[in-house]
Write a structure and sequence with these properties.
This protein has a single domain, classed as TIM Barrel (Alpha-Beta Barrel). The chain has 10 helices and 14 strands. The chain has an 8-stranded parallel β-barrel, surrounded by 6 helices. A two-stranded antiparallel sheet has the order 1-2. Strand 3, helix 1 and strand 4 form a beta-alpha-beta unit. It starts with 8 loop residues before the first strand and ends with a strand.
């Protein structure tokens, strides 16, 4: 049986060569939001790894939207140029595609970097005021965010639109909206953080309105032939929080509005979360969404082994697999997966001599086949 993991898949006008996605991985290495050599190296290694789609880390839409000052962003010309440098590398050297994940941190804005101890960064030390659906702080150590007025909600939606336009000019081929892990879109979705009584709060459908409005606004300006997806947290892992059932309903709504994929993660909203972690611990959430939508579903979360990833796809629990920590540990994970599953894969011409069939090491795993770069 041919490996499903290495079957092509179409997202609008893009034909991805396989089903492997490099998930967003925050680097806390940008200088006032501008990507530098580290970002070119970090994402460039995945451009030549064989992955079908590589996404930026959360890329913020405004100065006060940043999780931390060192987070990659896309609200200035200099930031746009830096993203364009990475996009050009993909265009020149990759069979895969480059996408930008757009994000607003909401109440998680103005944080101190984890390697500096984490927690809130006060305004007195260079921080900035956070805004959110409601004045619900992250915990007792964090200041309450400023509630967004109805006018301010419209302004934030426009920030996503403006950053999407910059992403297009920079050469990105995919937009992913970050609606997971406790950031602003997720904060609107969850009743734990959304205490509003206007059209963006209250009922489950009203709490979904912001996510839908952001999607519609970005879709309206993004090229028709290029895809837009969304990353969601399927559950808050907190009683009374955002639920899998609501995630399924949001998936249905976005599917009907032309969303091109849904990337299913979980958690990240509340310190009270109680997560049961293990291999593929989020795959069941992806499966629930897949049963309700036509758009491709991406599964993520401790999927470390190629055969495990293949089984998920063969069992029709998801359509694509996203990886983060496994490809930090092994940037050539895709090559090794192809070899393990006996699937052909293109190596960049500069690296063709590294294929096991070329240096007498084809017995490392099941033999793969080298095909020339397009």
């Amino acid at each position: 049986m041919a490996a499903k993991l290495f079957e092509p898949i179409e997202l609008r006008g893009l034909k991805l060569p396989n089903r492997i996605v490099v998930a967003p991985m925050t680097q806390f290495s940008a200088e006032e939001g501008v990507g530098g050599d580290w970002h070119l190296m970090h994402l460039g290694q995945y451009a030549v790894s064989g992955a079908a789609l590589s996404l930026t880390e959360s890329c913020y839409v405004a100065p006060n939207a940043r999780n931390a000052r060192s987070c990659l962003s896309l609200y200035s010309d200099e930031q746009e140029t830096a993203i364009g440098r990475i996009a050009q590398f993909f265009d020149s050297h990759s069979d895969g595609f480059f996408g930008v994940q757009l994000c607003h941190a909401g109440r998680k804005a103005s944080a101190r970097e984890p390697f500096k101890g984490g927690g809130p960064l006060p305004i007195s030390e260079g921080g900035y005021e956070a805004s959110a659906p409601s004045a619900v702080p992250l915990n007792e150590e964090w200041p309450a965010p400023k509630p967004l007025s109805a006018e301010a909600v419209s302004d934030v939606i426009q920030l996503f639109v403006d950053s999407a336009r910059r992403a297009e000019r920079a050469g990105a081929k995919v937009i992913e909206l970050h609606g997971a892990h406790g950031y602003l879109i997720h904060q609107f979705l969850s009743p734990l953080t959304n205490r509003r009584n206007d059209e963006y709060g209250g009922s489950s459908r009203n709490r979904m309105r912001f996510a839908v409005d952001v999607f519609d606004a970005v879709r309206a300006v993004w090229p028709d032939e290029l895809p837009i997806g969304i990353r969601v947290s399927a559950t808050d892992w907190v009683e009374g929080g955002w639920s899998v059932e609501e995630t399924v309903e949001l998936g249905r709504i976005l599917d009907q509005r032309g969303c091109d994929y849904i990337h299913v993660s979980s958690g990240g909203l509340s310190p009270a979360q109680k997560i049961t972690v293990g291999p593929g611990y989020q795959v069941g959430f992806a499966e629930s969404v897949k049963s309700a939508v036509k758009m491709p579903v991406i599964a993520v979360g401790q999927i470390n082994d190629a055969e495990f990833a293949e089984t998920i796809l063969q069992d029709q629990k998801a359509d694509m697999i996203a990886l983060a920590r496994p490809v930090i540990y092994d940037p050539k994970w895709v090559w090794h997966a192809a070899h393990q599953l006996g699937a052909p894969i293109a190596y960049p011409r500069q690296y063709e001599r590294g294929h096991p069939d070329r240096w007498g090491a084809s017995g490392i795993n099941a033999p793969g086949n080298l095909i020339p770069e397009k």
